[in-house]
Please model this.
Amino acid sequence: MNVIVHKFKEVLYAVLPITFIVLLLNFTLAPLDNISMFIRFIIGSIFIIVGLSIFLFGVDIGITPIGQLMGKTIAKSNKVWIVLIAGLLLGFFISIAEPDLHILAGQVDFVTSGVISKSLIVVVVSIGIGALIALGLVRIVFNIPLYKILTVLYFIILVLAIYTSPEFLAISFDASGATTGALTVPFILALALGISSMKKDSKASEKDSFGLVAIASTGAIIAVLLMNIISKTEEITGGIEAQAEGTLSVIGPFLHEFPKITKEIIIALLPILIIFLVFQKISFKMSRKAVRKIVVGLVFTFIGLVLFLVGVNAGFMDVGREIGYSIASLDRKAYLIIVAFVLGLVTILAEPAVHVLTHQIEDVTSGYVRRNVVMFSLCIGVGLAVALSILRILIPELQLWHYLLPGYIIAIALTYIVPKLFVGIAFDSGGVASGPMTATFILAFVQGAAEAIEGANVLVDAFGMIAMVALTPLITLQIVGLIFKMKSKKVGLEKDVQ
Amino acid sequence: MSSNSEMIAYEQVCIIVDFGKGSKIMQTAKKHGISGGTILVGKGTVKNRLLEMLGINDIRKEIIILVSDKSTVHHAIEQLDKQFKFSKPNHGIVFTTSIYRVLGAKCMKETINEESGVNNTMYHAITVIVEKGNAELVIDAANEAGSKGGTIINARGSGIHETSKLFSMTIEPEKELVLILSEKESTENIISSIRSKLKIDEPGNGIIFIQDVNKTYGLYQ
Model:
């Protein structure tokens, strides 16, 4: 039972801080006047704790082994065209099933009044991700340094961004955060690990285990930017969708979310299951016991993710909006910024993909880079991101690109001096940080705040928050890398042997 | 121990604990005279019907390897035992094996340890190296023959037939290293079970070697 207790404890430490902070706010700055919302929040927290625990087991014994096996099988083909096509197809099918992408595409469809249809966006973004995953796999097998690829990719983005409208700039960066969700990230991470773990050079194998998520995320950005330039949509018409009135029912929202999310997750898991079964038939040929274990893992993943997402959507979303609104209505705006920072800090702890990434980092580096270190710097990064986004709502003159441009320039510049292992880790974290927790709870908080502040455009100001969450970890984690570099120089000994 | 003519006996200590304790143990060991060590990450298996059915019977472990002369080692593990309570269930396992020669550690003089044939050994350390993915089969086979569990460490390596190149990466096949502690009487059973189940005698299927263990903590029936 030790194993279960262990995992449960880890998840408890991840979810309790945010629960605690919200309760604290409830009794101080932002009392929730709706008692059913409060109860829903508590039930939501329990759902999240149980769901996240089960999900993490599922990833360990289901998703990760499939991804790793797939990576190895692809590499062993020893043919470039197989790597390219496999990368393209895998990326496409994984991304097209991602629920977050469908939500985002729905919003874009809405704000462009249907000029850019939902299905078009889903397909275009998925092609973008597929193409870039193919590129990422080729990078690993041909040992092309990650920082060079990233420099080129972000340069392309910069050029494209000049020709794009500011709204679409925000949407494109949000897309990159949205598409790398709770299911795709573990899979993509495992895929990279599978290929690179075969390398003879252990340093290379360590650092090449990371970076594929980062490359995949740029695929989404580039795809959306290109689409905007080609279709020339200038005007963005919509406001935010009409919000459902805060219901008084406690279990109503849970019952409402449950079938919806179940369906979404089935669709999202299906490609992974099918790809696995096809590969099992033609190439893995594992024992029945091993297959059973993986299938059990997928079932865990499914149950865990459904519980988690129901908890977030039904229990956390309204609370986020409510807190954002009431704190923004206070006279002292400093409170809003502080609360934003703290919420960002604690929300990221409960993000599923973050757990997967940090465990993989610990495994790959044999514990050299500890989970806590990565967690800590991610927390700081995301806290800053949310606080900066709030600042942008308070000061209308501040544009999103005022953050993004210098931010990415710093991030790219750092890749040239930071230990290469940390480049991969940092850029992967950027994609990983913006998962379901951020996309619902924090987004709701920011939107709530934007509603309360006069002159703030909910759409333009609140969008772009995810983009910020994806940016700041790139910088904070690379700074940690620099600190590691300085600290790990051996003291009192002559030069290293190498 | 002052004169050169006297043989200094060296021992290797191997400590297997839950993930996260490794660095703490290493620091304590250093306090008690051990000059350094290496930490590996591995996984252990838990024997539990329910967990096995659910497929979550793996637990992450850290393996700490320390080398020093006999008296330092004995002193250090006494102290470690006091602090980390290996003798309590689930607090970890410690065992020591004899070492033939130590190089590269400045504080230890290079000497050859001729004191072989350790007296009253009760346990053997069995090391099995197999292709990645087969470690669980090894553990299963060992458990059938009466072993209590084992630790799996990810590794890679190659025999003379196995290096190859894919694209521009040189490949070394992935291996798994399984460490099993067994009572002397059941060693033979365990290895013959592994040997037949994994067809170790056919080329390329793996390697088994067995070491005498001098001291153990944390093993119980």
About this structure: Confidence is low (pLDDT under 50) at residues 1-6 of chain B. The two ends of chain B are 37 Å apart (CA to CA). Chain B touches chain A through 29 residues (CB under 8 Å).
